[in-house]
Amino acid sequence: MNTSARRLSALLVLIPLSFFAAACGGGGSTPPPPPPPSGKFSNASLSGQYAFSMTGTELCGGVGSLFTRIGTFTADGNGNITTGLEDVNVCPGTSTLQFSGGRYSIGGDGRGVLQLANNTGTTDYNIALSTTSAGMIIQTDAAATASGSFQRQTASAFTNAAISGGYVFDFNGVDVNGSNVNPASYIGRFDADGAGGVGNGLYDSNIGGTASGQQAFPSGAFYSLDSNGNGTNYGRGTAVIAGRTCAFYVVDSTRLKFLTTDFPSALAGDAYAQQNIAFTPSSLNGSFAFLIGGSSSNGPITTAGRFSADGNGNISNVILDENNSGTVTLLPTGTVTGSYTVDSNQFGGGTVSWTDSTVGTFSFIFYLISPTKAVFQEVDSNIVSDGTFTAQTTTPITAASMAGDFVLGWSAIANAEEDYVGQFTLNSSGSATGLADFNVFSAGQPFLAVPLSGTLTVGGDGTGANTFEATLQGNSPLHFTAYAVDPNTVLLVGTDNNIVIAGPLVRQP
């Protein structure tokens, strides 16, 4: 699976290799990084059972190839991994692997290292905790890099009965059909009956830039926790969703992590419990921030912005930044008009489009998780891009209200992939200082504790296009437009012509 066809999720970023040349060079010539803050986090902060999911690039036959992994590990609060299980879809195929142990270490700023061991060897990761229940993760091995997230599991939900009601999902990766390898996105929804049955399944796929339109699930859809002990011990199960064969791990009754096992295709993503209401046009009412990412016919693409829906089918106040392989498009440029629909079946599917009189039309489909959140897929020709939109706060955002500690979790792709996590502190004037850890696939080694500095500039009421500038020590600044969901979450999209980059900032407590 060649990485040129790789599908990027909204939490992934794309940066050319040249950006890291200065940061990776110099060895001991750079001054030591400042010490992280002490006391907020420690090994005891990572305690319990956590489900994770990742997508990345591995070395396969001498070239980079997409792979996916999901699983679970148990941390004892003292630096030891006691057990766990993972499913991987890698170059040789798919497999389920038992963890035999491992180690971890968490610093005061929430950044840490994690090692997971199975019968194939030990895999190295760097992590950044947003809370004691969740965090960002990157793989930092020489021959593979990946990025994703992890969340603490609720073991009482490791039953078929706990998976009940409506779920909205977003899977992305690559679809392989013979010699054709295409970026792919699937979003949709289904009802789980608590006994392994699936009904009212609907999905929209976008494979290689060709959108399917809304489709019903093919026959044979199901889900089932494993009966061999992996279900009750780890929350693992198997399923057929939207015609794709999957393994999944339960986070809790409201969230499941999926990986497709119909090799050589490889997709991964999450399913979220859907609010049990009849969705109508009035369900979409207010201001929303969004972040999507993926591939276009030109290469990597990412788009972030905000819009307002009036509850009656009209869209207004559209602002966005799109970076399509270094070509940056800003809205509004001319006059923007827009509209949306919500499906009459009331399952939460719908469409959004807006037209800028100068730039042209942008078209999307969505599935509502609730009136405040949805999965979001672009359906314009030759683009495969998806992510989420989320209701914005109605309280004004200021630099002072944004002050505090944040984590980041980004991934980069140009000729090869780079992934990084980090932590920084924003003061009340918008200045940021912290540390980042990253892995560069082509370099074959990670780069740790790189000093990060930056500035967040908030304009107006803070719900529009703010700016964020970040510098990794020894590099030119990266310039972003920053869209605040609320004081706890900011969505970033890069606006430099030689860099395509996007990802979130998430507040620590």
Concise description?
This protein has 509 residues and is mainly β. The protein is 3% helix and 61% strand.
Task: Chart the SSEs and their pairings.
Blueprint: H1 20-24, E1 47-60, E2 63-76, E3 81-90, E4 93-98, E5 101-106, E6 111-118, E7 121-131, E8 134-140, E9 144-152, E10 164-177, E11 180-193, E12 198-207, E13 210-211, E14 215-216, E15 222-225, H2 230-234, E16 236-241, E17 244-252, E18 255-260, E19 266-273, E20 285-296, E21 299-310, E22 314-324, E23 327-331, E24 336-342, E25 349-356, E26 360-370, E27 373-378, E28 383-391, H3 399-402, E29 404-413, E30 417-426, E31 431-440, E32 445-457, E33 466-472, E34 478-486, E35 489-494, E36 502-507
CATH topology of the largest domain: Porin
What would you call the structural class? mainly beta
What can be said about the biggest beta sheet?
10 strands, antiparallel
Query: What is the count of structural domains?
Result: 4
User: Which stretches are poorly predicted, pLDDT < 50 over at least 5 residues?
Assistant: 1-37
> Can you tell me the CATH class of the largest domain?
Mainly Beta
Strand fraction equals over 45%
What separation lies between the terminal Cα atoms? 40 Å
Mean pLDDT equals 91
Q: How many H/I helices?
A: 3
Question: What is the C-alpha radius of gyration, as a whole number of Å?
Answer: 21 Å
Q: Summarize the amount of helix as a percent range.
A: under 10%
Number of strands: 36
Specify the CATH architecture of the largest domain.
Answer: Beta Barrel
Shape: globular
